[in-house]
Fold this protein.
Amino acid sequence: MRMLLVMSMLPLLIVGSRPQADFDVVIRNGTIYDGKGGASFAGDVAIRGDSIVTVGVVNGRGTIEVDAHGLAVAPGFINMLSWATESLIQDGNSQSDIRQGVTLEVMGEGESMGPLTDTMRKESIAQQGDIKYDMPWTTLGQYLQYLEDRGIAPNVASFIGAATVRINVLGYADRAPTPEELERMEALVRQAMEEGALGVGSSLIYAPANFARTEELIALSKVAARYDGMYISHMRNEGNHLLEAFDELARISREAGIRAEIYHLKASGQANWPKMDTLIARIEAARARGAPITADMYTYVAGSTGLDATMPTWVQEGGLDGWVARLKDPVVRARLSREMRESVAYDNFFISARPEGIMFAGFKTDSLRYLIGKTLAQVAAMRGTSPEETAMDLVIQDHSRVDCVFFTMSEANVRKEVQLPWVSFGSDGSSDATEGVFLNSNPHPRTYGNFARLLGKYVRDERLVPMQEAIHRLTSLPASNLKIQRRGSLVPGNFADVVVFDPATIKDNATFEQPHQYATGVQHVFVNGVQALRDGEPTGAMPGRFVRGPGYKQQSN
C-alpha cells in the first residue's frame, strides 16, 4: 500500500514542474498610493481575474510577476472630460491616454453619442472627418456597449448630453420646449440613466446648447437626480460673465437637488483672470454650506474648440448648414464682424484670445491643412482679409467649425486650480496615436500630456501638491463624485485598474507646435486585471468595459 501511494505522487515530483500560480498578477515591491489620499507605503498588489485580492504583503506567486521596485503603484486614472468618442472607434488601444495611466474615459460634455434620431444619425455621418464609421446604435447605452463589444483598452462611461436631448426633440431651434416636448426630453434622460449614464452634461456656450433656459436644465437635472446622477457643465460663460454663470450652475444644483461639477475650471481672457479668486471663494462658500459642487481642469493655459466659439450663437441657429448659409449673407457678415470685435454679451473667444492667440489645429478639407499651426492673425494677413472675415470664410470653405487652440488663461490661475482639493482632472481631448489619420491634425497637447504634466511638472517639479493627494484626485475623488462602484482605489474587491509609473521620470512631451508625442514614465497599466500596457507599450489587449452609473437598471430581454 505504501508503494502504491508513493507512485501516485510521482507526477508532482517530476524535476522542472512548477506549482500552479496563486494569482494571475502580482505587482511586487512598489510604493503604493491606494487612491484614498493617505501616505504611501511599500508593498505588493495581487490580482485574480478582474479584481484586486490583496494589497500589502503577498504570499504566493502570480502567473505574471511585475517588479515595481522604485515605482509608484496607483489606481488607474479617471479622465473626467474625454472626447475619445470617435478616436476609440479608430484605435481601441487609446494610446495617448493609456500611456499616461488613464483607465476610464468619461464622455458627454454637452453632447453624447446618443440618443439619436434617424436625422441626427444621417447628419453625424455626413459631418464625419478623417475617422469614418457606421452608427449602428440609437441610444447612449447602445453606443457604450458597442465600444465594449468592438474592443477597447480603457473603460468608458458617459453623461447624456443636454444638447443631444434638445436636438433629438427640438432640432436646432432657438426656443423653449412645450410642456409635451419637455416631457419627451425628460423621458430620454430617464432612459439614459437607466441604461447607465452618469448624469446630465451641458455645454452652454455653444448652439443649440445655450438656447436652453435655466428652467429646462433644472427639469432634466431633476430626472437625473432621481437616479443619483450628477449635473456637469461647461458653464454658460467663462469670461466676462463667469460669476453669473457659476450662480446659474449653483441654482441648478440647488433646485434640482443634484450634485454639480464645473467642467475645465477657468477664467478666460486677461481682463477676467482676477475673477478666479472670487470664483474659488464662491465655490468654497457654497461647499461650506453643504452644496455638493466640484470641478475638474486641464493643466494648460490654452483651451481648444472651434471657430463657433468666436461667434454669437444666433448666427448658428439651424445647425451647421444654417450657420454656413448665414455666413454667405453680406448683411449678416457686417453685423457679425462688429459683434465679434465688440460684443461681450456672449463668451466671445475672438476677444478673449485675440486673433494672435487663435491657432488652427484641424481641418476636414485637405487643401486647407497647410494652415495648421498658423494663427488666425497670420492667415488673415496671408489672405489680405480681416480676422473676422477670415474666420467666416474658413468655416464656409471647410464646412465645419474648424478646430483651433485658444490661448486665453494664465499660468498663475492654473497653479491655483491645481492646488484645490475638490478639483479632479480631464483632458478635454480625444485619445490619439502618433500614426494614421491622427496625424492629419494638430490636437491640443493635453491629448497626449494632461495627466503626466500634472504628476511631472506640478507635483514632482513644482511641489504644488503632494503625490498622494494628486493621485487621490485622479482616482477615488472622481469615482466618488460619479458614484462609480469598485473603482478608484486599491482595495481588495475592487476591479483591478492599476497603473505602475516612475515618479522620477513621468513627463509630458507634447507641445503646441509638435503635439504628437507620447508622455513617458508610465511602465504598466492593467484594466480589469488584464495588462493593457507593458514596459510602456500597448499589449493589444482590449479589456475595457462600459462602466454604468448609479441609476443603471438591468434591461430585460
Remarks:
- Residues 1-17 have pLDDT under 50 and may be disordered.
- The chain is about 35% helix and 20% strand.
- The two ends are 58 Å apart (CA to CA).
